[in-house]
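USER: Write out one fold?

ASSISTANT:
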Amino acid sequence: MKKQNVNIFLAYFILITIFQLSFCFRCLQTQYSLNNRLNIKDDLVPIDLIDNPEGITEQILIIFVDGMRYDKMIEAETPNIDQLMTNGTAFSNYHSVLSSFSKVNYAAFASGSSTNFTTIFSNEYEENLTLPTLYSEAYRSGFTTGIVSDGRSWIRFLQNFTAVVKVDEDENLVPNKDVYVKDAALTTIENNFSQIQFIDFSSVDKVGHLYGAASTEYLKTIELIDSYVGEILAAYKNISQLENTTIVLFSDHGHENIGGHGSDDFNQTHASLIIANQGIKEHGKIFERRVTMNSVTPTLLAMLGLPVVQTMNGVILHDCINSTTKTNAMYSIQIAEIINQQLNVSIDKLRLLSKRTKLVFRAAVDEITDNITLAKLEYAATQYQ
């Protein structure tokens, strides 16, 4: 009798365990196939700037180093990256949007939007990004745009290129594959120069997965990429384009000491960002306030003198760029109107059951709208007009 009771209990325990595992797997699957339930992007309309801004750069070089953790970048022997820090601002508290998967943050960087707009939650996403991006807006405004990459994702996510160089080499070459990207970039810079150029290095991430961020191999690969950065900067200098170019060096996430990323752990989200040369306010500054991946594109659009798009929800890093008070004012008003519109449309989509709750949200939107109106009146009343 006791044996039968034990067997019944064991069978019950197994059934409950299977049910719980099944539920967990369903939750996990839902997390990574989630669509934006509010889908507010289709209800947003463009919001114009109150005035015509002055751009502070006409050329941008973007160097992407997949998986480079900030503190390990600082630890490595990187004279060329150190020189960028001397000539610009480094962001010591720069992080992935959650989660810290590559494609999630490729999309966030490209579009200036977090996951509620991109609806990309994992590395399984294989489609083109259907949002305005840094490249789509620059291309539409007449800037020439280029990319040198060994993968498809950045090409899918950035969009709208004047020139694409896809480097197809043996994927098993680690870390030497990036030498082909570097060589292709040097040829492109010399013979097919783009005003906005993106160069994609992937080997730091691959070594991070293989050996971990605490490994000598990880540091050595960062140092190898630093040497490639030096060659690229020298190529810009050789064609007299270095001094008048804004240089952005960034990564999408960090790595655990034992390797890996994808969660919200600090080491996994702790990415690298340096913005240097043209248009930067303070050289040699370490910016300590938390900044996330979706803030870079709105900042670069403001530096180019282009409007921020209604689907973007990153902030402009006004205190790091050398724009005028007038320009900062007009972008601040535009960002406030964009965020207010996003909030207003979200309230309509939330299907709030409580009328009192709806009134609280509506009162907040009305107050923000009134403050924006006052800001516009203040702008018009100053010497700006």
